[in-house]
Specification:
The chain has 6 helices and 5 strands. It has helices at about 25-30, 40-50, 65-75, 85-90, 120-125, 140-155; strands at about 1-5, 55-60, 80-85, 110-115, 130-135. It is globular and about 45 Å long.
């Protein structure tokens, strides 16, 4: 199974009230731009791995996938894949249908997406993909994600569940 995470305001939270993982050592900050990785990300990703889930990043930013993956690796987080806005746009380039969702995880084999946006949740309902919304101020965000993972694992296979 695959799970994807948005970056901005989901895994990367700049607000002073949002606890973050320790910053990278200065030497590593010469190699990548360090951003505040939300506290609990490392432990959550390790737990997801134990449960047999691949962790992906799906962002509307234009950050380069290799840089995102390297930054996460330096923080002790393994991302199987990174989908940025360029890749998302490339997927839809030859599609002729009208409305194009902001994100479309099924195109990349993703079973559950984690985002801070209610708009993405609504698009999930409209386009048939599972989304769990976590806000920067959610103290129990990792528990919400794990509950959504359990719900996806329980679904009967007749369609997408909407978290």
């Amino acid at each position: 199974m695959r799970i994807s995470f948005d970056l901005d305001d989901t895994l990367i939270c700049y607000g002073a009230a949002v606890p973050s993982e320790p910053p990278l050592p200065q030497l590593l900050r010469w190699l990548v731009r360090d951003e505040p990785l939300r506290l609990g990300t490392r432990a959550l990703m390790k737990e997801l791995w134990k449960l047999g889930w691949e962790s992906w990043i799906y962002t509307t930013s234009y950050r380069r996938p290799a840089q995102v993956r390297r930054w996460l690796q330096f923080h002790g987080v393994a991302a199987t894949g990174v989908i940025n806005q360029d890749m998302h746009e490339a997927y839809f380039r030859d599609k002729v249908d009208g409305h194009r969702p902001t994100k479309y995880p099924p195109a990349f084999g993703i079973d559950l997406h984690v985002d801070d946006s209610d708009g993405v949740r609504i698009e999930g309902k409209q386009h048939g993909f599972a989304v769990v919304v976590v806000r920067p101020d959610d103290q129990d965000w990792t528990e919400k994600v794990l509950a959504a993972v359990a719900a996806v694992e329980r679904r009967d296979g007749t369609g997408s569940s909407h978290i």
